[in-house]
Structures are given as structure tokens and as C-alpha cells.
């Protein structure tokens, strides 16, 4: 098929020796085929197995796509058989994720098939996709292949270029030109030999190159490669990088070199992939283990600074009776003079604890700045506000534990249990430090994923519960000094 010197479009040979597009632009009669039922329009695309035109089906009153066998191949009987086989294979299939065939014919020695006009772009131009979206796309492709396998048809050329994605995200599998009826061992169906393999080599199962008869496991291999390629934008070659969670196990089993080690059916693969998606959905947006360690380290620095700040606050608001010469007057807040000349300091500015807290927060801010810059550079600092924070459950549990410990201490003091009274302050300090750690880990993760803390009621309620017992203790200690 030659190119038009005027517009560069394809010029079919035979009766199509004139460019259809230019004929239409010049006001000439339209190019009609199929006894005038089809009016050809613009070229939509071309590949190794044909050229596709947009057309108008006057008989049915709808827009369709017409695929012509390339003129350079039309004279070769084996390729005409392949082209006809595509039409027959597609005619058996009626699935929402497979391009539908409407008709088949021949015009001036050139075979063509009339197909559903599937709009959109190829999956190849969209790679890579977000993990959940990639899994959803592969699940739809797998459903289409499972349906085709049920009709005895093996695609054998699954790749991103043969998957169409429209603006609404709908998926269409195209180009069953390499399909073959499974189980038919007649040589008339076998157009592939060990030294002449069809399809895209990186997506081809190894046994195809050896001339093995078609099997669903060939499409399973291609689907595994497609899943990895769609999620990462790279091909699983050599010692390729692992995927998160159970999705990695699904891919590695699907692309096993030995066919018997792969999934026995597409349905089995899809079942495992749906389970992996459910687990991945829970963990979506979480950091890799190594990155989580850095987040925990920064959260621990913040927790330490918060503990120092808490110590400074408690030291500052603990009432004390001191000599007037022991504190600078500017450090006292609302002092009251006693009869013996001492001052009652209800609150004051504790220099070293306060400066220690400020220094701690300075270190924490510096560490979090480096961490956030690293996330930004590696693409880990991306919005993902929907999944809840795992820290919220821990915070609520710590809040409940704080109240249990507070009640335990109060009852122990009431009943005279010294062991309870002696050790509960230590346990309470451990709990409060844990609360600060969980709080800052949650804040850092929420900022990374752009999730507002107002969407985490468990976090807020748990923190309020955890802070209530120490606040009550301080009030209980301070109120007698106010009289």
C-alpha cells in the first residue's frame, strides 16, 4: 500500500489507487465498498496485519472501523488465511472488553473486516499507570481472555499496543490476528514455525519460539508481562525489581519459563490478582519498609522533643514555695508572698527545660525537612488522602490504656496498694511517650499523603483520652495551692 503524495495517507491498490481522503476533500464521490454499504473515511492506524479506516455503514446507520489486509501481503495465501481467521475468531466473541466484529468481505481482491469503532488511545501511550489502576486494567483484559479461551481462542499477541483505552477508562482488546483455535493440531492452522515467530518478542512465551502448539498459558505469560509493564513502565527482564505485596508473586508465577509452572487458567490468575489487589488497597500509599524506618526515626526525634517540652511545661506549672532570692522576679508568673517571706510560684519560666525543648524541636524540624525533600525527590511525597492512617487505631488503643492505668492507680491508692502506686507513674510515662511517638508518626504520614487529620477521629479521640489523665493529675496537685 503506497502513500498519497498530497496528504501522506495510505492509498489502497486496485480500485483504491486514488487517496480516499483527498477524493473527499476535493468534493469527489466517496469511496464505497461492500456493494455501496460502506463509505470509507480517514485512516485510523496501521500495523503489521493491516490498515484501519473509519467508515460509515449506510446499511446499519453507524460509524464503524474497516480493516484491510495490506496490499503487499494480499497476494500471499498464508497471510490471507491469517486475515480471514481473525474475522472468524472475532465473530465468535461477544464481550464488552473485546472489539466486536460486524462483517467480513472482499473488494477487488482485498479482504476486509468491519469492526466496532473503538475510540481512545493505546495502553502503550499511558504507561505506567498507578498500581490500583494498572491492576483494574489487567483484570478487564484477563476477563476478556478468559472469555476467549472459553471459546477455544488464544490471542497470542497481548501487548499494550493491542489494548485500547477510551476517555471513560473502558478497555478493548484488539487484533486477534494471531488467534488460533486451541486444540486444533491441523497444520493448516499453524502459520508459525520455530524460525518465524509472530507477536512482540518480549511478550511472547518462550515455547512460542520453539513452535509449541497454542495454549492458554501463552496468553497467561503475556498477561503477566503486561501487568508488570503497566505498573512500572519497564519490562520484567533479568533480575527485575520486585512489585509490592502479593502482586509480585502473581507476576512471577505468570511469567514462569516452564509452562507447567504458570497458572493453569486465566481465571486462576485473576482470582489471585483480585486477592492481591484487596491487600494492596489496604497498604496503598504506605512507604516501603526501609522508608518507614526513616519516618519512625524522625517521629522518635519529635516524640523526644515533645517529652522534653512536656517536662518543661510540668516543671513550669508545678507550684513551688521558694525564697525570694532563688528566682529572678521576671521568671515568676503571678507570685504570692507567704507570711515567712517566701514566694509561692504557681508558674514560672524554666530556662533549661524550655531551651532544651526548643533545641529538640529544632533538630526534629531539620530531620523532617531532609526526610520530606527525600520523599519529594523519589516521588514518595504524593497525594493519597483516601486510605486511613494505621496510627489512628494505635492512638485510640493507647488512649484507652491510659484511662485503664489511671483507674488502676486511683483504685490502688484507695485500697492502699503501694506496688500499684509506685509503678503506675513509670508506666504512665512510657504510655505518654508512646502517645507522642504515634502522634508524630501519624502527622508525618498524613502530611506525606495530604490527608487531613480531621479525617482521623480515632486519632483525635485517642490523643484527647491519653492527655486527660496527666492533665487531671496536674490540676489535682495545683488546686490546693490556689486557696
UniProtKB/TrEMBL annotation:
It comes from the Bacteria. One of its GO terms (molecular function) is protein serine/threonine kinase activity. This is Serine/threonine protein kinase. InterPro entries: Kinase-like_dom_sf, Prot_kinase_dom, Protein_kinase_ATP_BS, Ser/Thr_kinase_AS. The chain crosses the membrane at residues 351-371, 392-408, 420-440, 460-482. Pfam families: Pkinase. Keywords: ATP-binding, Kinase, Membrane, Nucleotide-binding, Serine/threonine-protein kinase, Transferase, Transmembrane, Transmembrane helix. SMART domains: S_TKc. ATP binds at residue 67. Residues 38-295 form the Protein kinase domain. It comes from Pendulispora albinea. Signal peptide: none annotated. The keyword Transmembrane helix applies. PANTHER family: MITOGEN-ACTIVATED PROTEIN KINASE KINASE KINASE 20-RELATED, SERINE_THREONINE-PROTEIN KINASE NEKL-3. Gene3D superfamilies: Phosphorylase Kinase, domain 1 (3.30.200.20), Transferase(Phosphotransferase) domain 1 (1.10.510.10).
Amino acid at each position: 500500500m503506497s502513500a498519497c503524495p498530497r496528504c501522506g495517507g495510505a492509498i489502497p491498490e486496485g480500485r483504491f489507487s486514488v487517496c480516499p481522503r483527498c477524493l473527499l476533500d476535493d468534493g469527489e464521490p466517496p469511496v464505497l465498498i461492500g456493494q455501496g454499504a460502506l463509505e470509507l473515511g480517514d485512516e485510523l492506524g496501521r500495523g503489521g496485519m493491516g490498515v484501519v479506516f473509519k467508515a460509515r455503514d449506510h446499511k446499519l446507520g453507524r460509524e464503524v472501523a474497516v480493516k484491510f489486509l495490506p496490499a503487499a501481503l494480499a497476494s500471499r495465501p498464508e497471510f490471507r488465511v491469517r486475515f480471514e481467521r481473525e474475522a472468524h475468531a472475532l465473530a465468535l466473541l461477544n464481550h464488552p472488553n473485546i472489539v466486536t466484529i460486524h462483517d467480513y468481505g472482499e473488494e477487488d481482491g482485498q479482504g476486509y473486516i468491519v469492526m466496532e469503532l473503538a475510540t481512545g488511545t493505546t495502553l502503550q501511550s499511558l504507561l505506567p499507570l498507578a498500581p490500583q489502576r494498572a491492576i483494574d486494567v489487567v483484570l478487564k483484559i484477563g476477563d476478556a481472555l478468559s472469555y476467549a479461551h472459553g471459546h477455544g481462542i488464544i490471542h497470542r499477541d497481548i501487548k499494550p499496543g493491542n489494548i485500547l483505552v477510551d476517555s471513560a477508562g473502558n478497555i478493548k482488546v484488539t487484533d486477534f490476528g494471531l488467534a488460533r483455535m486451541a486444540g486444533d493440531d491441523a497444520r493448516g492452522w499453524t502459520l508459525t514455525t520455530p524460525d518465524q515467530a509472530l507477536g512482540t518478542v518480549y511478550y511472547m512465551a518462550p515455547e512460542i519460539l520453539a513452535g509449541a502448539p497454542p495454549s492458554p498459558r501463552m496468553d497467561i505469560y503475556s498477561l503477566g508481562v503486561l501487568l508488570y509493564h503497566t505498573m512500572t513502565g519497564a519490562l520484567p527482564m533479568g533480575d527485575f525489581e520486585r512489585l509490592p505485596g502479593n502482586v509480585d508473586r502473581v507476576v512471577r508465577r505468570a511469567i514462569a519459563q516452564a509452562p507447567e509452572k504458570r497458572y493453569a487458567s486465566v481465571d486462576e490468575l485473576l482470582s489471585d490478582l483480585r486477592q492481591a489487589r484487596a491487600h494492596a488497597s489496604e497498604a496503598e500509599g504506605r512507604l516501603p519498609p526501609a522508608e518507614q524506618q526513616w519516618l519512625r526515626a524522625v517521629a522518635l526525634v519529635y516524640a523526644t522533643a515533645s517529652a522534653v517540652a512536656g517536662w518543661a511545661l510540668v516543671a513550669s506549672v508545678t507550684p513551688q514555695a521558694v525564697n525570694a532570692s532563688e528566682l529572678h522576679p521576671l521568671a515568676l508568673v503571678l507570685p504570692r508572698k507567704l507570711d515567712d517571706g517566701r514566694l509561692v510560684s504557681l508558674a514560672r519560666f524554666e530556662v533549661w527545660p524550655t531551651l532544651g525543648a526548643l533545641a529538640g524541636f529544632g533538630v526534629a524540624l531539620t530531620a523532617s525537612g531532609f526526610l520530606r525533600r527525600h520523599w519529594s525527590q523519589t516521588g514518595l511525597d504524593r497525594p493519597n488522602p483516601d486510605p486511613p492512617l494505621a496510627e489512628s487505631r494505635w492512638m485510640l488503643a493507647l488512649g484507652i490504656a491510659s484511662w485503664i492505668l489511671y483507674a488502676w492507680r486511683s483504685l490502688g491508692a484507695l485500697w492502699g496498694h503501694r506496688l500499684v502506686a509506685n509503678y503506675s507513674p513509670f508506666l504512665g510515662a512510657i504510655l505518654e511517650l508512646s502517645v507522642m511517638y504515634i502522634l508524630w508518626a501519624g502527622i508525618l504520614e498524613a502530611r506525606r499523603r495530604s490527608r487531613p487529620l480531621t479525617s482521623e477521629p480515632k486519632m483525635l479521640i485517642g490523643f484527647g483520652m491519653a492527655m486527660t489523665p496527666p492533665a487531671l493529675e496536674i490540676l489535682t496537685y495545683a488546686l490546693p495551692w490556689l486557696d
